[in-house]
Amino acid sequence: MRQIVMVGFLQAQNCTNLVSSWRHPASRTDSYSPEYYRHIGRVLEAGKFHMGFFDDRLAMPDRFGSDHAHTVRYGIRCVKMDPIAVLMTMGMATERLGLGATCSTTYFEPFHVARQFQTVDLMTNGRAAWNVVTSMNDGEALNMEHAAHGEHDRRYDRADEFMEVVLGHWETWEDDAIVCDKESGLYAHPDKVHRLDHEGEFFRSRGPFTVPRSPQGHPVVIQAGQSAWGQAFAARWGEVVFVGTPHTLEAGQRAYKAFKDDVAALGRDPDLVTLTPSVYTVVANTKTEAEDKMALNDKLFEEVDALSLLSEAMNFDFASKNLDEPFTDEELDNISGTQSMRDRVQEASGIRNPTVRDFIKYSSRARPRNPLVGGPKEVADGLEALFRGRACDGFVLAADHVPGTYEDFVRLVVPELQRRGLYHQDYKGATLRENLGLPYPQRGDWKCSTAPS
Asked: Other CB atoms closer than 10 Å to residue 243's CB: what's the count?
C-alpha cells in the first residue's frame, strides 16, 4: 500500500529555513548546541519520519548590499555550521531516522564527498543520504577561492561527471571483499577491490576507494534542482527529489507526472524515485488556535529577510534597484543563481518584468509558502489531497519554530495520518533504503541513469 514519505527540513544554523524563526517566542536559542539537534532527532524518530535533512550554503547571505552587516543584525542565517558534523550528533541519538546533508559538486572533490558520505553511512548503519547541489552565488565562490560563481548550465555539466566519479567509487568494493580471516592472514580479496581510473573533462580520479560498502550499499542520493537543467539532473540521478510547494493540486499533478515521465524516459523506474514538496504546517488542537499561531508568524517577518534571501538565491543584489523598479529582460535572462525562483515569480504574478516588490510578494521568500493552517483534521486533509491526488509521494516538513513545529506535527498530525492509513505505524527496516522501499544497489546499477536526457 502506498504511504507518505516524511522528511524533516533542518538547518545547522541559528534559524530554520524560515529566517524569522529565531524571533519566535517558543524557539530554542541554543541552535549551536549538540542537545538541540539530539532533541530534534528524537522527536522526528518518535514520529517515524523517514529522514532528517540538512540544507546548507557555503556563505552567509551577503549579496544584498554586498555586505553581511544586515545578515548578522537580523540573524539571517548568520551562523552556518558544518552539516555533516551536526548530522553525526543527531545520528548518535537515533537508531532508525535517515540522515541527509548537502554537499556541493561545485566546490568539493568527488573522492572527498564519496569518502565522507560513505563513512557516515557506515557510522549510522546505513542511514545516510547526500543532497547533491551545484551551489548558487558569488558569496560561496569567494569563500572557496573562486572569483565568481560559475555559469548555471556548465555547473550541471560538472555535476553530471561528479556523480559518475562518486558512484563509481562507491561500487569499487564488492560486497564480500572483506573476510578478516586472522588465521590465514587474509583481510580482503584484492581482486574484489577495484580502481576507478576515471579521466574526464572535469575530473581525474584513480582510486582505489578506501571505504567499503555499508548495510544499504551506499548513501541515498537526494536532488532538488528546479530549473530545466536541474530537473533533468534530478531525473537522471535522484532517488529522493525535493520540489517546491505546488500552488494548486492541478499544478502539482502536472509537475509530478512530467517528472515521473522524465525518469521513465531515462530507463529508470519512476516508482523508485520519491518526489517530496516542501510544506509548512501550522497546527494546533483547533483551527482557531492555529490561525492565532499563524498570525504570530506574520508579525515576525521583516522585509529585509526577503530581500536578503532573494539576493542570495538569485545571485543578484536587490539593493541595486528601487522597490518598484522592474527588472530588465537582460537582468532576468542573466540570473546565474536559482532560475526557478525567477520563473516562479513570473508565473505567479503574470508579469514578464517583475519589480523588486513583486519578487517579495510572489516568491514567498522568508515567509511560509502556501502553509496548511488548522487543527489535525484540516492539516491532514491538505496533505492527503496532494498525496492521494498524485501530486507527490511525501513531504519535506519546514518549521516556523523549533522544536515546536516538529513536536506539534508528531503529536497531532501523525496520529491522524496513521488513522487514515496514509502513514506507516513503524519503520520497515534498519536502513534508509529499506524504509524508503528502495532496493539494495548492485554494482553497475547507476550506469542506466547516464542515458542522454
From this structure: 23
| pLDDT (tens digit per residue) in 227-237 | 788 899 999 99
For the chain, give the mean pLDDT.
Answer: 94
- What tens digit of pLDDT does each residue of 67-90 get? 999 999 999 999 999 999 999 999
Mean pLDDT for 18-32 is 96
Q: Does the annotation flag 102 for ligand binding? A: yes
308 shares a domain with 279: no
pLDDT at 452 over 60: no
* Whether the bond into 403 is cis, omega within 30 of 0: yes
Q: In 130-202, which ranges are continuous DSSP H helix?
A: 138-143, 152-170
Contact present, 379 and 371 (Cβ < 8 Å): no
426 pLDDT more than 50: yes
Does residue 189 have a known ligand-binding role?
no
Are the C-beta atoms of residues 394 and 387 closer than 8 Å to each other?
A: yes
Residue 449 pLDDT level (bands cut at 50, 70, 90): very low
Question: Do 285 and 338 reside in the same domain of the chain?
Answer: no
* Beta carbons of 417 and 395 less than 8 angstroms apart: no
- Return d(Cα 172, Cα 400) in angstroms, integer: 43
DSSP states of 394-429: EEEEE-SSTTHHHHHIIIIIHHHHHHTT-S-SS-SS
**Residues 124 and 236 grouped into a single domain:** yes
Is 39 annotated to bind a ligand? Reply is no
Q: Is 172 annotated as a binding residue?
A: no
Residue-wise pLDDT for 236-268, tens only, equals 999 999 998 888 999 999 999 999 999 999 999
CATH code of the domain in which 258 resides: 3.20.20.30
Sign of the Cα pseudo-torsion (413, 26, 50, 447, in order): positive
Does residue 248 have a known ligand-binding role?
A: no
Q: Which domain range does residue 416 map to? A: 5-300+369-450
